[in-house]
Specification:
By secondary structure, this protein is an alpha/beta fold. It folds into two domains: about 1-65 and about 220-450, Hexokinase, domain 1, CATH 3.40.367.20; about 70-210, 2-Layer Sandwich (Nucleotidyltransferase, domain 5). Helix content is about 40%, strand content about 20%. The chain contains 15 helices and 13 strands. It has helices at about 20-35, 35-55, 115-120, 120-140, 185-195, 210-220, 280-285, 295-300, 300-320, 340-345, 355-365, 370-400, 415-420, 425-435, 450-465, and strands at about 65-70, 80-85, 90-100, 105-110, 150-155, 160-165, 165-170, 200-210, 225-230, 235-240, 260, 410-415, 445-450. The strands form three sheets. The chain has a six-stranded mixed β-sheet with strand order 1-11-10-9-12-13, sandwiched between helices. Helix 1 runs parallel beside helix 12. The longest helix is centred in the last third of the chain and has 32 residues, at about 370-400. The radius of gyration is 23 Å and the shape is globular. Bound molecules: adenosine-5'-diphosphate and magnesium ion. Keywords: ATP-binding, Glycolysis, Kinase, Nucleotide-binding, Transferase. It is an enzyme of class 2 (transferase). Pathway: Carbohydrate degradation; glycolysis; D-glyceraldehyde 3-phosphate and glycerone phosphate from D-glucose: step 1/4; Carbohydrate metabolism; hexose metabolism. Belongs to the hexokinase family.
Length: about 475
């Protein structure tokens, strides 16, 4: 089996027979995507500076949103709570039973959010959420009454200006949502209003970002958790910051030492100072529904990786270096080259790249492909995937440096399909972390933290009580 390359200097996909013009085009693209150790460290340093700016003042690019979740879960918390998770590919409703001893049981149901709900009046979207809560309660026979309302933690994974654990207004939509009538509004109020109008006896007591939820849920199970991360449709991170470092938090008094900060790192470097943008990134950005926003997210997350790769492939087609110069109707469609395909292609270790062939010829309907074509496609996926993992590591290493990591090491909880399914994403991150942090990186565990948004929201609902 051919190992999956972990760095740009590892053996990337080789080519059996290709022309000089192929070779030089591929070398040129490879250079554009490469991020060496020095560059990685520079990006990480800038990231750390941006974090500190965000802790000092409101309205910074890296928003460093205070979550108002203070304290670190002990694992001993108990109780039954509801959680509603909006902001991923699916809407998820959960009943979470915190059993103590770091144990939980969860019952959950997923619901679709249609494009018309994502982009129609926000009121309809929130009414739909309330309907899903109602449906969930009846389907699972969960009793809640007007006198004794169940508490719900609302995981809302969009940038929010949070002013209390149960209050926060949407700053802007991301990840394909545009629903008018929500920006600037308190999303807890909107959800509670919809629940009340529909007479669903549930009280929304906590608002958390999925990243905050992931951190809390992971910390419930592993006491040395430092950071919660999302690598899915979008990307973001949350960590425990000393309250005394959160300079912008003026009128907040608490006995606690730490507060969870939702970094909102997707927006890092919207100013374009350090991220190595290629023309393929520029094209993606210009055609996205949020140009010049979420700069880092567009390099890293599942929503965008396939599209970057598609842009590279189209460029090679137009230069008659790929597929004999012909595209297909499918490949010409924005977002049709899915990030999931990249996972399959990177993992394809058949001699003739049969799995890659199937994707290209059956899923994307290209009439025929040569082995060289498929090798080029694989190389392009490697470049885009490697760059994403290394940039994730740049962000992680900045946060790790911001915290005092104990001698014994620490744990990072990561949720999201990209981390779960993309081949060697974790190993690539680890390699890049070692380049940034040296041997200390060996003491950092990267763990999958599934379902964090549900359990985490329940913990927040509990901590808010
Ligand atoms: P969300 O972040 O929306 O809560 P997920 O964590 O499941 O949900 O992430 C969904 C994203 O993960 C999609 O944008 C998709 O591109 C990406 N994805 C799904 N399956 C795979 C896969 N097998 N390999 C790589 N990326 C994937
Ligand atoms: Mg998610």
């Amino acid at each position: 089996m051919t190992p999956i390359p972990l760095t740009f200097t590892d053996k990337l996909q080789e080519f059996n027979d290709c022309s000089e013009s192929h070779k030089s085009a591929i070398d040129e693209i490879t250079k554009e995507f490469e991020i060496n150790t020095d560059k990685l460290k520079k990006i990480s340093e800038h990231f750390r500076n941006e974090m500190n700016k965000g802790l000092e003042k409101h309205g910074q690019t890296v928003a460093m949103v205070p979550s108002y979740v203070t304290g670190i879960p002990t694992g001993k918390e108990v109780g039954t709570f509801l959680a509603l998770d909006l902001g991923g590919t699916n809407l998820r409703m959960c009943q979470v039973n915190l059993e103590g001893d770091g144990k939980v049981s969860v019952r959950q149901q997923k619901y679709k959010v249609s494009d018309s709900l994502k982009n129609g009046e926000a009121r309809h979207l929130f009414d739909y959420l309330a309907d899903c809560v109602d449906k969930f309660l009846s389907e699972f026979n969960i009793s809640s009454s007007a006198e004794d309302k169940l508490k719900l933690g609302f995981t809302f994974s969009f940038p929010v200006d949070q002013t209390a654990i149960n209050k926060g207004s949407l700053i802007y939509w991301t990840k394909g949502y545009t629903a008018p009538g929500a920006v600037g509004k308190d999303v807890v109020f909107m959800l509670q209003d919809s629940l009340n109008r529909k007479v669903v006896p549930v009280e929304v007591t906590a608002l958390v970002n999925d990243t905050v939820g992931t951190l809390l849920a992971h910390a419930y199970k592993h006491s040395n958790t430092l950071l919660g991360v999302i690598l899915g449709t979008g990307t973001n991170g949350a960590y425990f910051e000393k309250i005394s470092n959160i300079k912008k938090l003026k009128s907040f008094s608490s006995n606690a030492d730490h507060m969870v900060i939702n970094i909102e790192w997707g927006a890092f470097d919207n100013e374009r100072k350090v991220l190595p943008l290629t023309m393929f990134d520029n094209k993606l950005d210009r055609k996205s529904n949020n140009p010049r926003k979420q700069a880092l997210e567009k390099f890293i997350s599942g929503m965008y990786l396939g599209e970057i790769a598609r842009n590279v492939l189209l460029n090679l087609i137009d230069r008659t270096l790929l597929f004999d110069g012909f595209s297909s109707k499918d490949l010409n469609n924005q977002y049709y080259f899915e990030t999931e395909y990249m996972s399959t292609i990177e993992a394809d270790d058949t001699n003739t790249l049969e799995k890659t062939k199937r994707i290209l010829e059956e899923s994307l309907n290209l009439p025929s492909t040569t082995l060289t074509d498929r090798q080029i496609v694989k190389r392009v996926c490697q470049l885009v995937g490697l760059r994403a993992a290394r940039l994730s590591a740049a962000a992680l290493s900045a946060v790790i440096s911001q915290c005092n990591v104990p001698e014994s090491g620490c744990n990072i909880g990561i949720d999201g399909s990209l981390f779960l399914f993309y081949p060697s994403f974790k190993e690539r991150i680890k390699r890049a972390l070692k380049e940034c942090l040296g041997p200390n990186a060996d003491k950092i565990e990267l763990d999958l933290a599934p379902d964090g948004s549900g359990v985490g929201a329940a913990l927040a609902a509990m901590l808010s009580a």
